[in-house]
Design goal:
The protein has five helices and eleven strands. It is α+β, with helices and mostly antiparallel strands and about 210 residues long. It folds into two domains: about 80 residues; about 120 residues, no CATH class. A hairpin with a 4-residue loop joins β8 and β9.
Length: about 210
């Protein structure tokens, strides 16, 4: 459901009545995405309450913010949001992301996989290569402790302590987009579930 949310946000950004030429306001996209998210959760759990709706709106707002920050969407100063054409961005050593509008029914290229909200693919980019998107090629400074926990043969959990959430913004936003939120952990921690293939990139993010 979280992975599908990105495609719905894209769809709402296109829904301006002119094929996406003008864009849609941030508030309208968040409102529509939150309603979709709530309806899906209600189908899954059979319940709906104010606390869950507020959390879902926060998730939608954060994802939209992150999508704009990493170049998955564009936004004007008046918060009008539009889609961009599909493109590939190297965001950490050895890994790239497919950003921009892409038909979710289109067959994926060999070697691609989904983690969190993004489609990813291994790349040959290294720390000695050119600048990686908006992130400096130098590994970010360590801001606290982090712990990896294997969940199954495909996924692991990354837990950061509260002070570790002070990662440089590009790193934090990429981390939020390539992982699934983990609502099972206490609010004193920042916990993410992600594909095991991304451990090296996460270690680079957190220094």
């Amino acid at each position: 459901m979280y992975s599908a949310l990105r495609y719905w946000i894209m769809a709402y950004a296109l829904d301006d009545g002119f094929g996406g030429s003008f864009g849609v306001s941030e508030d309208t996209i968040i409102r529509k995405a939150s309603r979709w998210f709530n309806e899906m959760r209600e189908i899954q759990t059979g319940t709906s309450d104010d606390k869950s709706r507020k959390r879902e709106r926060r998730v939608c707002s954060l994802m939209l913010e992150d999508m704009v920050a990493i170049g998955d969407l564009v936004q004007t100063g008046s918060k009008i949001t539009s889609c961009v054409e599909e493109h590939v961005v190297a965001f950490a050593p050895g890994m790239s992301a497919v950003l921009g509008f892409r038909d979710p029914t289109t067959p994926q290229d060999e070697g691609t996989f989904v983690s969190g909200a993004l489609t990813l693919m291994p790349s040959k980019t290294t720390e000695d290569g050119p600048e990686l998107s908006n992130v400096s090629v130098e590994s970010p400074s360590r801001t606290g402790t982090a712990r990896f926990e294997e969940l199954d043969e495909f996924h692991l959990r990354l837990t950061l302590n509260a002070t570790s959430h002070g990662l440089p913004l590009p790193c934090r936003q990429w981390l939020e987009m390539i992982s699934w939120p983990d609502f099972t952990k206490a609010e004193s921690t920042r916990s993410y579930v992600l594909r095991r293939e991304l451990r090296q990139q996460c270690e680079w993010f957190i220094g």
